[in-house]
């Protein structure tokens, strides 16, 4: 459910006409709905009602400071994957004791920074990383709270680029060697074992891969407890899918209920663990739309193109993952003929498209809106083809707040240096 709706043939973001926002701030632009964002957070909170859960929003999905600030005010935590993301969440007012640090290549500088901030947990993804964390913590005279990211070798049934829980993926440590790593960590002076985690992929539209993973890891948890290693939390990762087209992904409470059901026998034996989730997409994707303008239409011998002012630098998802994202007209245009279009951008790459074979009634100058654009769109933006990054606004009822200004041309080379003559 979101708050982007048509009223009298015109698309609104909450209570502001999208065409009005586009006129005021130009295109291309990202528009987020505050009410939608908060509603999605609430769905996760309700799923945990009366239970010991922690929601850690995955920052990489959308790392805009204002969004992080809004989420941090909801008292949720964050899942970060870099020092930059740690700096961002701190700048947005996050409580570091609710921050989890994932990622396969944590540097000494990043580990130092996280230890100094006092984060909740490092999700350790390799044996060497464990050694590095122990060394860095020792140097600082600290004890690092750690969890191992276990690769349960389950198929998440999603796009190969966003599947992370198979043994051929680079993520986590194999379930087969995890026990030995826990034993090794247990003996280290500067790490403290607090959890176990997995994250098997993104845009998951069924519960069964999560349950397969939990089932595989329950055995390991029992083995750990038998060896005297106790855990504070079990982190089941993010990955819950959203509706881009016809998908019908499970709701947060369906996922959480199923997880607790699968864990009931384990909790009976070892006591209840805190359950951590790391949702990104399911919180922000449908809280955002991407709006752009039709610059030209052209008919190349029967193939119709809608050439828009938005490129793969602004939204790379269609090019990178062959992602389907719904494209709709901002103001319905019943007079224009219904045609099949490839919606393409200005970037000089054949892979620069926003959508293929879309039935649209459009003409030059019309605005298009791409739904589900709150996650992995603006945060993946680049300046390729020297295109300044676009403006982002957040709508709150009748108010529009700019949360990232459109970059200027001078921003493009702000960090570059001319050679001395
Ligand atoms: C990307 C990522 C997430 C978030 O995934 P979504 O599909 O956006 O929910 C959570 N945890 C880790 C470790 C990730 O890399």
From TrEMBL:
Top class in the EC scheme: lyase
Molecular function terms, GO-annotated: diaminopimelate decarboxylase activity; pyridoxal phosphate binding
Residue stretches making up the Orn/DAP/Arg decarboxylase 2 C-terminal domain: 33-374
Pathway this chain belongs to: Amino-acid biosynthesis; L-lysine biosynthesis via DAP pathway; L-lysine from DL-2,6-diaminopimelate: step 1/1
Cofactor(s) the record lists: pyridoxal 5'-phosphate
Annotated binding of pyridoxal 5'-phosphate, by residue: 239, 278-281, 376
Pfam families listed in its UniProt record: Orn_Arg_deC_N (PF02784), Orn_DAP_Arg_deC (PF00278)
Active-site annotation: 348
EC number per UniProt: 4.1.1.20
Catalyzed reactions per annotation: meso-2,6-diaminopimelate + H(+) = L-lysine + CO2
Binding positions for substrate per the UniProt entry: 281, 317, 321, 349, 376
BP terms from Gene Ontology: lysine biosynthetic process via diaminopimelate
Residue span, Orn/DAP/Arg decarboxylase 2 N-terminal domain: 36-285
Role according to the record: Specifically catalyzes the decarboxylation of meso-diaminopimelate (meso-DAP) to L-lysine.
Oligomeric and partner information: Homodimer.
Family listed: Belongs to the Orn/Lys/Arg decarboxylase class-II family. LysA subfamily.
Name assigned to this protein: Diaminopimelate decarboxylase
